[in-house]
């Protein structure tokens, strides 16, 4: 049997401890039945016990995959790492601007993964790597470190990114340039280095984190360069997906809507009313939690999406459809 077929996700208890859900979930099986019948309760308890170790479609497993995520010391990138670990990944590189923060995030991730699980810290090889994605040399050095450590890289996510809100007339050019250097060129350097290393090993999956802003114009805050940068990232993924389609490297885009992370909290800190506005513009009536992206990132990074390239998945509470 192929190693991936043996893989299963961690028990439900470990998943809960990695990150307690902050949004209401479907109530447990027992809560949906209103019966005092002891036999019914016993049956439900036995189903619940069996469900503690859930087998999922093997293609979603991240076991035996080496993953690299940029911008992963915090925010969405960090959540993507958690999702990979929860799906069986044990070899992972957390890439971020400051090496100490990346290393600290790696330690925290291992600690969380071992809580209430049969896994030991030594079962994981998670490293923190300092890298400025706007520098091609820095990205090349980060990939070299990962290749020296693991010998291969299978799934790469380019999540490092920044946003700023200036009207077009007020936006200083040096800041516009910095935004494009990180959000556009950083994604390109990451994807190109990923493909350079993946092609000789037979392929891999690259996910570029764009935004719903690649498809719509956010209101009321002005952010033209960010929106244009994210549209560039989306079309970059499509173009690279075609360029490398026959070489086994798939490139797709994940486009989140408004998610609660440091990036958005910084904007909201200056404008309490803005959150209400964003929520009212979102059909589902709320901002997303980072873990709302877990299913989509595992799908794109894993073999479950093996016939998909150049595509975009939007996870935005319905924002773009109205
Ligand atoms: N939060 C949202 O609502 C939202 C919505 C749509 C898209 N996005 C996109 O998701 C991605 C992640 O956003 P987030 O909310 O997690 O942001 P965040 O600010 O919480 O985290 C971004 C991470 O990227 C790192 N980073 C910044 N510049 C870097 C550089 N030059 N080199 C390496 N690392 C760098 C930061 O240190 C940080 O750890 C970004 O590309 C963002 O545009 C976010």
Automatic annotation (TrEMBL):
Key words of the record: NADP, Oxidoreductase
Gene3D superfamilies: NAD(P)-binding Rossmann-like Domain
Protein name: NAD(P)-binding protein
Protein family: Belongs to the short-chain dehydrogenases/reductases (SDR) family.
Keyword set includes Oxidoreductase: yes
GO BP terms: carbohydrate metabolic process; small molecule metabolic process
Listed GO MF terms: mannitol 2-dehydrogenase (NADP+) activity; oxidoreductase activity, acting on NAD(P)H, oxygen as acceptor
Superkingdom of origin organism: Eukaryota
């Amino acid at each position: 049997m192929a190693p991936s077929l043996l893989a299963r996700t961690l028990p439900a208890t470990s998943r809960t401890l990695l990150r307690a859900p902050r949004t209401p979930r479907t109530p447990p099986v027992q809560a949906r039945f209103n019966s005092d019948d002891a036999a019914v309760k016993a049956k439900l308890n036995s189903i619940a016990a069996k469900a503690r170790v859930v087998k999922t479609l093997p293609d979603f497993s991240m076991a035996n995959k080496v993953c690299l995520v940029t911008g992963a010391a915090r925010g969405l990138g960090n959540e993507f790492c958690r999702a990979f670990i929860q799906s069986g990944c044990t070899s992972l590189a957390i890439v971020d601007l400051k090496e100490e923060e990346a290393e600290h995030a790696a330690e925290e991730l291992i600690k969380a993964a071992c809580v209430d699980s049969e896994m030991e810290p030594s079962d994981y090889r998670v490293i923190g790597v300092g890298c400025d994605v706007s520098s091609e040399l820095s990205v090349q050095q980060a990939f070299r470190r990962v290749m020296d450590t693991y010998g291969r890289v299978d799934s790469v996510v380019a999540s490092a990114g920044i946003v700023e809100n200036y009207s077009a007339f007020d936006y200083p050019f040096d800041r516009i340039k910095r935004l494009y250097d990180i959000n556009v060129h950083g994604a390109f350097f990451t994807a190109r280095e990923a493909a350079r290393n993946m092609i000789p090993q037979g392929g891999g999956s690259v996910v570029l984190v764009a935004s719903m802003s690649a498809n719509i114009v956010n209101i009321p805050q002005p952010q033209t360069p960010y929106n244009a940068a994210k549209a560039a990232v989306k079309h970059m993924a499509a173009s690279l997906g075609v360029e490398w389609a026959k070489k086994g490297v798939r490139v797709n885009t994940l486009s989140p809507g408004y998610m609660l992370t440091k990036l958005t909290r910084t904007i909201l800190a200056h404008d309490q009313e803005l959150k209400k506005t964003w929520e009212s513009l979102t059909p589902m009536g709320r901002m997303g939690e980072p873990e709302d992206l877990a299913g989509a990132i595992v799908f794109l990074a894993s073999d479950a999406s093996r016939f998909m390239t150049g595509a975009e998945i939007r996870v935005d509470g319905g924002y773009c459809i109205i």
